[in-house]
Each structure stands twice: as structure tokens, then as C-alpha cells.
Amino acid sequence: MRSNLLRISLLFLLFVQLSWAADKNLSDTHEFLLKNGLKLIVREDHRAPTVAHMVWYRAGSMDETNGRTGVAHVLEHMMFKGTDKVKAGEFSRLVAAVGGRENAFTSRDYTAYFQQVEKSKLEEVIKLEADRMSNLNFDDAEFLKEIQVVMEERRLRTEDNPSSLLNESLMATAFMSSPYRHPVVGWMNDLQNMSASDARDWYRSWYKPNNATVVIAGDVNAQQVLASVEKYYGAVATKDLPVRKPQIEPPQRGAKQVQVKAPADSAQLTMAWKAPRLEPGKLDEPDPYALELLTAVLDGYDNARLNRSLVKQEKVVNDVGVGYDMISRGPALFVISTTLAKGKTVDQVQASIRKAIDEIKQKGILESELKRIKVRILSEQIYKRDSIFGQAMEIGGTEMAGFSWRDIDYILERMQSITPEQVQAVAKKYLVDDHLTIAVLDPQARKSGAEGGKP
């Protein structure tokens, strides 16, 4: 009885804290739309004299065409190669000079750039970022140097990494039509044949204010931020964007399997099922929330079901992970990834995974088990909002998937209403062989230094 009362009290406390945070976020968050189509979202948080400035372009690898995969990521690199006013390499130096940090990242859904600076330096980074939104200017020589950097990045992170190779083959096998089948870094042949004009065309097509969202979080005044953003970003001309084709993934009609042979110490098994994602305008659909909670049931804490059964009890794997992207622009997969223990076979591991899933399908999950997971999700959300940068990331990622920052708290609230029966139902409905793609890493002996060294 005492432990139940403690759990209920903790849950109530977290709900109170979240409700306070939600009300505060709504009152301290401001959204503006500039005349040129740029969206500005300002989150005021005055706990520390710092600010995160981010610009998100709704253009990622899913917007690429065959033969030009990787160009979104390549352009991310080229954005640091200068404008008419700022020489190549100067952007990062100027941000560092005002005590800031900066970087960029590309995903399937978007490309984003950020700086985190002391609040009095905000206008300086706004000016720099707005300048390269419209005035990027790099020569062919800079491109030729940087494309070599990207190709080396692919070699190191993918071609020399068996886990990355396996994931790349999994995605290319699971999807037939969706551009999610292509790696964000691009296929090597496409990188080898990419030209500076490909990167410039990508920039001219997508890097426009009407395809961008600026997110600024920190110790700021929203109206003052708006004035600075209008001064610099507002001067950038709008432009028609390319037509985006739906590229809807056709229904899968049976299980798929792919094997990858690569130098590695251990075999790996990944099982991925097609699953629905949360869609804008359909926030009350229960299945995506139930799938998100199912990932936590299987792998959300140290003694979650797969870790307990596969790692601790049966000792068939060294590690196991479960992933599912509920919010994205493209189709979703529910993924279970494992690294096999020495002497264990893929068939043994697959049988153990299926046994754990079948137990949920047949017996369901406990109410107490789900409550524990919901408390963990709430607490993680509250801790995340202690970070100014984390708040900006959450807003930007949500907006890029087609949702509003206003939906964030409702999504979390909706997840709290999911029942054990709904979690059991999605396991039965989606974790079936007709939706399944299996990827197996067959480990090969590593070459000796004499045999495998680069010429």
C-alpha cells in the first residue's frame, strides 16, 4: 500500500509540475509570421543570460532525387564556406569570437543550424545566419575540397562501421518508394559524381524564408527579437518552392530479409516492422502513442522486458535497443536491434524476441508497469525543459514534422491516457510478419594490418 501511495503521489506531483510548465510555455512562447513567409517562434526563459538561435529548413534527404542523394548534407557543409561579406571559415570564427558555440545537422526531414550565445550577442548571430540564407557564395575549389571531407565521413561512419552498414541495408530493403530508403549522407557513387552546381541548385531551391522556421529560446524579449529578425531575415526575398511529390510507400506484402557481410566482432540482428506515425490533424489517434509506450515496455528502463529476458536471463545478446519515431515527415518503423552474445545464433535470438512479443500479445501488460513508464516519460520531459537548447530543439523538430509547438503538451497529455489494452492491441496489430523486415549482420574476420592497410 505504501509503495502504491508513493507512486500515485509522484505521478500527481509530476502532473502538477507539467501543468505549470505547460501554462508557462504557452504564455512565454510567441509565434510570428513575417511578410516573406518566414516563421519565428520565441520562447522566453529568463533563468540564465543565454540564448539559443536556430534556423530550420524543411529540406532534408527525403526531398532529394535519385542520383543526387546526400546533397542536403553536402550543402550543410558548404554553408560554412562564405558569403559576399563573410569569407570561407569566418562564420565559425566570428561566433567563437563572441563566446558562442555553433553547429549544424541534417536529417531525413530537415536541415538545421544553431548558435548558442550570451544574450547581448544575439543580434550578431542573427545577422550572420540571415546573410548566408540569401548570400551564400562558394567556388568550385571549395566544393571539391569539402566533397572529399563528406566522402571520408561516409567511409568512417558507415562503410567502416558494421552497425551503420546494417542499418543502411535495412532501410533500403524495408522501403521501396519512400525516399527514407536513401542514407542521409548519400550513396558513395552519388557523392563521387556530385558537382558544385548540384549544391548550388539545392540552395537556390530550398533555402528560402518561406521554407524556414527560426526558433529563439532564452533570456530575451519577444518584441525585441522580432525587430531584429525583421531587420535581417525580413530583407530576404521569398520564392516559390519546388513541388513536393507524396512518394507514398506501397503496402508491404510479406516479410523481407537482408544479410550484410562485414568485418565485425559479433553478429547482429535487427527486426523492423512498418508502423503508423502520428499525423498532423489526427492527434487523437491512439496507435502511435501506444507504440511509443510499447518501446518503453520493451526497452524503457534497466529492467524492461527485452533487457531482462534477452540480456540478463537467457544471455543470448550483449545488448538490445528498441526505437520508434512517432513524429516524422515520412513513414515509421518499429525497430528492435541486438548484438548477439558469443556462441548464440540468429535463430535463437529471433525466437527469444518473438517469445517476449507474443507474451505481450497474449497476456498484455500490467497497469503498474505502464504507470511506471508514464512517470518516467513525464519526468524526462520536465528535466528536458531545464535546457534552453533542448526547448529550442523540441520546438523546431516538432514544427518540421508538420505540427505546431502548441501540440507538444497535448501530445504528452494524450499519451498519459493510453491503456494497457491499447498497448497490447498495437503489438497484435503491427508486430506481424507481413510488416516485418529482418536485417542480419554476418561478421567476417578482420584483415590483419599487413593485409588491410591503405596503400
From TrEMBL:
Residues 41-184 form the Peptidase M16 N-terminal domain. GO terms for molecular function: metal ion binding; metalloendopeptidase activity. Residues 194-374 form the Peptidase M16 C-terminal domain. Residues 1-21 form the signal peptide. Keywords: Hydrolase, Metal-binding, Metalloprotease, Protease, Signal, Zinc. Pfam families: Peptidase_M16, Peptidase_M16_C. The keyword Protease applies. Its cofactor is Zn(2+). This is Peptidase M16. It comes from Polynucleobacter tropicus. The lineage of its organism: Bacteria, Pseudomonadati, Pseudomonadota, Betaproteobacteria, Burkholderiales.
